Amino acid sequence: MAISAKLLGEDEYVVVSTRTHWKALLGPIFLLLVVAAAGGFLAAIIPAGSFRTPGRIAILAVGVVILVAFALKPFLNWYFSTYTVTNRRLITRHGIFTRTGRDIPLMRINDVSYEHGLIDRMLGCGTLHIESAGERGQVDLPDVPHVEHLHLQMSDLLFGGPEGRPGDGILADEEPPEHMRRRPDPQPQPQLPDPEGSTIFSSDDER
Question: What are 194-205's pLDDT values in tens digits?
Fold first, then answer.
C-alpha cells in the first residue's frame, strides 16, 4: 500500500499512507449478495429438462458480467488508489491500468481542513481539503480514513510539530525570519591597564 522507496527523495520518508475508506466497498458487496441470491433463485426455478443446464450457464454468465462491470472494477479502483504523506509532499495515486498521480510539495500548501457528516463520523472517515498555492488551487481527498488524525499530522508537518522539522509555520528547508534567529552573545570588553599602574575595569565589570 505504501509508495515504493525508489520514488522517495533523499532523506524523505513516509508519514502516512492509506487507501480510501472501506465504505467505498459497500456498494460492490451489496451487489454481490443480490446477484448471488438472484442467480441462485433463478437457477433453482428452472424446470427440469434439456434447457436446465444451458439456462443455468446463461444465468451464471450474466451474473459474472454484472459483477465484473459493477463490483470488481470499484474494488480494484479502491485497492489501487492511495493517499501518501511524506515529510516533504502529498502524493495521490489512482487508476488500474492507466495510473494517474499528483504530488503537492508541503511548502506550497497554505491550509488543511476536513469535514465529515454524521455517517462519516460513525464510519470514521471524512473529506480532507487541501489549499495549495498552485494552478489547481483546492484539492479534495474524499473518504479518508481517520481524517482527523491525518489532518493533525499534516498540520504538525506544516505549522509546527515534533522532531524539530517545521516550527511556527517554517518548513525545515526555509531560513527562519530575522526576529527568530539566535543572536550571538556579546563579546566581553577587554580590560585596559591604567597608566599609573592600577586597572581600569570595563563598564560591564562595574555593574
Answer: 555 444 444 444
Three-class DSSP labels, the chain: CCCCHHHCCCCCCEEEEEECCHHHHHHHHHHHHHHHHHHHHHHHHCCCCCCHHHHHHHHHHHHHHHHHHHHHHHHHHHHHCEEEEECCEEEEEECCCCCEEEEEEHHHEEEEEEECCHHHHHHCEEEEEEEECCCCCEEEEEEEECHHHHHHHHHHHHHECHHHCCECCECCCCCCCHHHCCCCCCCCCCCEECCCCCEECCHHHHC
- Domain 5-164 in this protein, CATH class: mainly beta
The pLDDT assigned to 183 comes to: 52
CA distances from 30 to 25, 42, 71, 109 (A): 9, 18, 9, 38
Q: How many residues make up the chain in this entry?
A: 207
108 vs 88: CA distance, rounded Å: 10
Residues of the chain falling short of pLDDT 50: 162-177, 179-182, 197-207
The strands making up 82-86's β-sheet, listed across from edge to edge, are 14-19, 82-86, 89-94, 100-105
